[in-house]
Design a protein that fits this description.
Elements lengths: L1 H26 L4 E2 L2 E5 L8 H12 L2 E2 L13 E7 L4 E5 L6 H7 L2 E6 L3 E2 H4 L11 E3 L4 H12 L3 E5 L9 H11 L1 E11 L13 H11 L9 E6 L4 E5 L4 E10 L1 H4 L8 E3 L3 E6 L4 E10 L1 H9 L5 E7 L6 E4 L18 H8 L4 H25 L1
Parallel strand pairs: 1-3, 2-4, 2-6, 6-9, 9-18
Antiparallel strand pairs: 4-5, 7-8, 10-11, 10-15, 11-12, 13-14, 13-16, 16-17, 17-18
Length: 382
């Protein structure tokens, strides 16, 4: 028994030494300062998963704030702040119109992680989710837009991400923001669903989606297999079904020529989150595309809505500006923050989330994409 206890203690001590060594290797990297304005209006959980992986990346590559400290995903952002989930207490941190120019000058970059917002059924824990639930807080507003506009004029880095364009953002702000990023939103969004027959607000169809589909199409919801749910800002809903409309129901992200020349460039991978269907503007560069493996019938269905089976996932709006739009909820990933301050933290992510497709997307696509964008900006502008 003593020998077993000795071996166990030896193994634990060895693991601890490795972890300490990896932390020290991370710590002695030279920190880089980047004053980043992070906006997240869709925070219904204490762990802030909508922008958590963004902060993981900042910490992992020793990108620090102007005070020299690592970013904290629970405090270092603007938007919606849950204070007490049980008591339903919250705070909102936002900029005023007369502060826009000052903040645009102070911040080096802006990342709008999620502007959709928080709704009453989520925050006040009502039993039924409805498509017309009242808004607690959310949507891209005039000041949000003006901050991006001014920072772009100052040649700062701006990154927008799904969901910026759909309701509750109003039509005027949406149009101006589309022009800013040099993209056009088709009005459609979508998401892969692994099991169409299971009601699950995180992974499967919501109950209101099923009711809306059956009301519009006058037939039962397709409850077998997997597929892609499509929803328009006008309230239309449809489903691309496995085999009938899709040869492979999973959504692929494919890097384009513009970023294949990068070192440690993003790789082809599957994407499991919500995405916008957008069209790139003249003079923009498409860095990566979403690809749907449709059958001829699926292609015809998309065509009936004016859509294609391949559309931009990452767009650099203007060749002479550091202006990017990510047409998916890329930053939503529940990574472990403990691994962010270890050299080789990517490997620990894989070990901690062996069956997580989101971690594969994070490690293989999002991490190298954002690292390259930030590095390119800091090397050229700062």
């Amino acid at each position: 028994m003593k020998k077993i206890a000795f071996y166990l203690l030896s193994v634990i001590a060895f693991i601890l030494l490795i972890i300490i060594g990896l932390h020290l290797a991370w710590y002695f990297q030279k920190p880089k300062t980047l004053n980043l304005y992070i906006l997240d209006k869709t925070v219904t959980q204490a762990d802030r998963i909508e922008h958590k992986s963004l902060v993981w990346l900042l910490n992992h590559f020793r990108i620090v704030g102007p005070d020299g400290k690592s970013y904290n995903h629970k405090t270092d952002y603007w938007g919606f702040f849950p204070i007490d989930l049980n008591q339903q207490l919250f705070d909102i941190k936002s900029i005023r119109l007369n502060e826009v120019d000052a903040y645009a000058a102070v911040y080096d970059a802006a990342y709008y992680a999620d502007c959709y917002g928080v709704y009453s059924y989520e925050w006040y824990k009502t039993k039924t989710k409805t498509p017309n639930s009242s808004k607690v807080y959310g949507g891209l507003n005039q000041n949000d837009y003006l901050l991006l506009k001014r920072m772009k004029e100052l040649d700062k880095l701006i990154i927008g991400e799904y969901n910026m364009f759909s309701s509750p953002t109003n039509a005027l702000i949406r149009t101006k923001t589309e022009e800013l990023f040099n993209v056009t939103w088709t009005g459609w969004a979508g998401k892969y669903c692994s099991n169409l027959g299971v009601i699950n607000y995180g992974k499967g169809p919501a109950e209101w989606m099923i009711k809306l589909y059956e009301k519009q199409h006058h037939r039962p919801w397709p409850s077998k297999g997997s597929g892609i749910i499509l929803i328009s800002n006008d309230g239309l809903i449809d489903v691309l079904e496995e085999e009938t409309h899709l040869q492979d129901p999973k959504v692929k992200i494919v890097p384009e020529t513009a970023i294949l020349q990068w070192s440690n460039n993003p790789k082809d991978t599957e994407f499991y989150g919500w995405f916008d269907i957008i069209i790139e503007g003249n003079g923009s560069e498409v860095y990566a595309s979403f690809k749907l493996e449709t059958t001829p019938e699926g292609e015809e269905k998309l065509k009936s809505y004016g859509l294609k089976n391949q559309f931009p996932a990452v767009v650099k709006g203007h060749s002479d500006k550091f202006c990017y739009y990510f047409a998916g909820d890329f930053a939503e990933n529940n990574v472990s923050m403990a691994t962010s301050k270890l050299k080789g933290g990517k490997t620990f992510n894989k070990l901690l989330h062996l069956n997580s497709h989101k971690i594969k997307f994070f490690n293989d696509f999002y991490l190298p994409l954002l690292k390259n964008i930030i590095s390119h900006y800091t090397e050229n502008q700062m």
